[in-house]
Design goal:
The protein is an alpha+beta fold. The protein contains twelve helices and 16 strands. Helix 10 packs across helix 11.
Length: 357
């Protein structure tokens, strides 16, 4: 039941599939959202959608979200895992409906106990603060990067190009790239190598090809399936900028984006290591595969968010650099009781993590 100021204003709330009977209500909600001038860059879809659920109050639509249910590993069992994306509620722009958002997340955890959400833009944002208040576990998925063209990074990336002397140093041929290679090498003093065999680009994965998932899933306490059919659904041939690579012992998937005057990446060509796994013991080869693939795709910067202990250790031993991460992961209370960060496999591709790349 709705609480506080909602009690006298709303009928009992329901979370229902977004069918055609609700399109008028969803459009009216979007108009109220727009009319309030809310600082939100997305809205409910204008048409019915099997993937979306709406919060309804009688005949009124008060918000909604996308729920993507996939199979995955939770503790020692295979289970349904629900990715919660783009949540909206009337309370975001009208304080008298402030109880709608908490009601939504409680209902989600009740209906899909193993729910998670990613992205969210930082711990200071309203959504992760709400989840923390509802006893969801919220944490960053660490951000790692490797510089492939030091001159371009120094000249083009706003975070460094504005520093004194950066643009001048970036104009010196080869010197910046050499300096970054030395920096990565110094930080990666413990690197023991990662030989990559048979690295090749593929259009899709053959049935049963991704043996890495079958080996890794026995070791994780949380992870969405990376079976071949799941990967092919996640990365269809028409998906812009994606490169699927396989190698002996695993696979790696990159998204390459040519930015133009971006506030974070300037005009760099950036490769995002979006997904990938290696059979246990081959994590160093996985890191090497990501680097080789990014270089072959002429990327100037390689970035990734990773939350899985063996892959993180391989990245660190290779000397990648880090930066505070605003890519957050949130687990519902039932999921948080089972999953542990160091044994959970989460990448930038989980949920809607590639939206802004």
């Amino acid at each position: 039941m709705a609480q506080g100021p909602l009690r006298d204003r709303l009928m009992p709330l329901s979370l229902v599939p977004y069918t055609s009977e609700w399109t008028a209500g969803a459009r009216a909600f979007n108009q109220r959202l727009k009319g309030a001038g809310a600082a939100i860059d997305f809205h409910l879809g204008e048409e019915a959608s099997e993937a979306h659920y709406l919060i309804v109050d009688g005949e009124m639509v008060r918000g909604g979200c996308l729920v993507d249910v996939e199979r995955g590993q939770v503790g020692e069992e295979e289970a349904g895992i629900a990715s919660i994306q783009s949540p909206l509620s009337e309370g975001l722009f009208d304080p008298q409906y402030s109880g709608v958002s908490p009601w939504l997340m409680k209902e989600i955890a009740r209906r899909w106990p193993y729910s998670y959400s990613v992205g969210m833009g930082g711990m200071d944002r309203p959504y992760p603060r709400l989840l923390q208040a509802l006893r969801w576990r919220v944490m960053p998925a660490p951000f790692y990067f490797r510089v492939l063209d030091g001159g371009r990074v120094l000249r083009s990336m706003p975070a460094v190009s504005h520093k004194k002397g950066a643009a001048l140093l970036g104009s010196v041929p080869l010197l910046p790239s050499l300096a970054f290679r030395l920096l990565h090498g110094w930080k990666g003093r413990r690197w023991t190598g990662g030989r990559v065999t048979g690295l090749e680009r593929v259009a899709s994965f053959e049935p049963g090809e991704t043996a890495a998932w079958e080996a890794v899933r026995r070791l994780v306490t949380f992870g969405v399936s990376r079976e071949s059919e799941v990967l092919n659904r996640r990365y269809p041939p028409a998906m812009k900028g994606m490169s699927l690579m396989r190698f002996g012992g695993g696979f790696v998937i990159l998204k390459v984006t040519q930015f133009t005057d971006d506030r974070h990446f300037g005009s760099l060509r950036v490769a995002t290591w979006a997904d990938g796994l290696a059979e246990p013991g081959n994590e160093n080869a996985l890191v090497s595969a990501a680097e080789e693939a990014a270089a072959a795709l002429k990327a100037e910067l390689l970035i990734t968010n990773q939350l899985y202990g063996p892959i993180e250790r391989a990245i660190k031993s290779r000397g990648w650099l880090t930066h505070p991460s605003n890519f957050l992961v949130a687990w519902s209370p039932p999921l948080a009781k089972v999953a542990q960060p160091s044994t959970s496999h989460i990448t930038r591709r989980d949920g809607d993590g590639l939206v802004h790349l």
